[in-house]
Design goal:
The chain is α/β, with parallel strands linked by helices. Helices cover about 45% and strands about 10% of the residues.
């Protein structure tokens, strides 16, 4: 059992035990300890957030304590709260917080709108990481709010947010110049001009996904390669208009590249990918001969134990 689990179990035992059963607690209750200096800093941090929310129901004092704790949280994500967060709980947990550095609302994607998100963005200007993955009911105004309200933003997830458009992305590029990672997977309204505009303003970018977007062409890939020399990870999955020429540009201008995804990019071949393979870049498409061997195994039904030698 880890130290964290042991401490968490100890806290639960203390909370559930009767006063007479608590060693050394005959005169004092848990809430007699200093709240901000001890309970918030050294005790509540070991409890899952979803349990702390439940703890608010014990008494008014516990509710006040938990609200103080929540107002001092620097991170909010589904791993702490569980996969599905009710609207009332979300609004209650974040209403007093003004120091968030990381915000993920993936657990709220089934219902969250601008009405719930914008107040949180507006009062947390220290945000460095925002994940809006799959939030269908937001609008472009949410991205503009992030751009205007989060000047220190470094990581932004917008996968499957089809409301993201070129104008909102340009606003992001104008105001968030420290961006390191950007996920635009399946943002189908986004076109070359907006990504190119951003690439010129994101010299520190090291991870970019423009996957599942038929609007993206060699123009974007070449501009990103030339402008974002720190690039380490590039996802072009399903970008049907990307060709070998731009992949060669990536190979030339991105010496730090570690991984490239080009699955379903039918105009990209080994002629350009081979250059990156020789640099040990991880590519999600097997070399042609390896693919042929896999297909042969499937067709003739070779046993998995058979090892085909090239």
């Amino acid at each position: 059992m880890t130290d964290c689990n042991q401490r968490s179990d100890g806290i639960y035992a203390a909370l559930e035990a009767k006063p007479g059963e608590r060693p050394g607690w005959s005169k004092y209750q848990l809430l007699d300890l200093p709240w901000e200096d001890v309970l918030v800093t050294h005790v509540l941090c070991y409890l899952p957030l979803r349990h702390l929310v439940s703890l608010q129901r014990v008494s008014k004092s516990f509710r006040s304590l938990i609200q103080i704790y929540l107002s001092n949280c620097r991170s909010f994500d589904p791993e702490q709260t569980g996969p599905h967060i009710p609207k009332e709980a979300f609004c209650s947990m974040l209403c007093d917080n003004k120091i968030l550095q990381s915000l993920s609302v993936h657990g709220c994607c089934d219902w969250i709108t601008n009405e719930e998100l914008l107040p949180v963005i507006g009062q947390n200007q220290q945000l460095q990481r925002v994940d809006l993955h799959g939030c269908l009911y937001l609008t472009r105004h949410a991205l503009v709010a992030v751009a205007l309200g989060c000047p220190r933003l470094q990581h932004l997830g917008l996968a499957h947010c089809e409301w993201v458009d070129n104008l909102a992305l340009r606003s992001l590029a104008d105001h968030c110049t420290e961006l390191r990672t950007l996920d635009l997977t399946a943002c189908r309204q986004v076109r070359d001009e907006a990504v190119c505009y951003g690439a010129a303003r994101w010299p520190l970018l090291h991870s970019l996904s423009v996957a599942i977007n038929a609007n993206i062409t060699d123009t974007t890939v070449e501009e990103v390669a030339k402008r974002c020399r720190e690039l380490e990870h590039l996802d072009l999955t399903g970008c049907l208009r990307v060709r070998n020429e731009s992949i060669r540009t990536v190979a030339e201008y991105c010496p730090k590249l570690q991984s490239l995804k080009v699955n379903h990019c039918h105009n990209v071949s080994e002629a350009s990918l081979g250059i990156l393979r020789r640099r040990n870049v991880q590519i999600d498409v097997e070399p042609p001969l390896q693919r042929a061997l896999v297909l042969l195994q499937n067709v003739v039904g070779f046993a998995p134990s058979i090892n085909l030698q090239i």
